[in-house]
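Hmm, what's this shape?
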Amino acid sequence: MSKVVLITGSSRRRAGFHLAKYLLDAQYCVVLHGKNNSELGEQLAKELGENAHFLAADVTSEEQVESLVTQVVERFGRIDGLVTLASVWNSTPLTELTASDLQRQWMVNALGTILCAQKVGLQMARQETGGSIVTVGDWAVDRPYPEYLAYFLSKGGLESATKALAVELAQLNSNIRINCIHPGNILFPDDLSEQKRQEIESVTPTHWVNDPLAFCQAVSFFLENRMATGTSIKLDSGRSLV
């Protein structure tokens, strides 16, 4: 039977959708997820075929995350993988930053990631085969740029949380692994100007950008590699080095 992977934050034609297509081609079953784009999420799942399914949930709600996990298990019998792409990325100048701005991004990017990893991890603990979780950080947590303090605060702790979860989940079931990917410009926003695209490419050492396949391959590695846990990688084509 095909392995089942839940991809949070995958209700648009962004990285999660590319990952879903990649995993389906590799004979996985995939569960797309979103909060506010249910109609599009349903459409994308239908487009992807019978081995794709869409579920809606607020990742900041413990009850809704528990329900999400329950629904996946009821439909497929288990969860073999989780990829936490659900996130908020909003710019706010420091002079305008409020407690509400900080809280909103922390709730989705940090709390939402941990809740999903916790609830899915506990389900994996009940499965003899365990499972693999991939959290998603950001290449720039060590080189933050202006006006994104709330975002970097929320993403900055994910690597440490991944390590802590790796230890605790392995104690519950030695077949559970969790790792973190810090992506760079794996997929440009649709509205990014050609000039900005060229600027980003020019400051990237290998000049290799806008490639969601690289992210998909990294996720696949972590889903399948039995010895990788509690670790992280940067997929930024060396941009964090300069």
Notes: The first helix runs from residue 15 to 25. The beta strands are 4-8, 29-34, 52-56, 81-84, 131-136, 176-183, 232-235. The chain has one domain: 4-241. The mean pLDDT is 96.
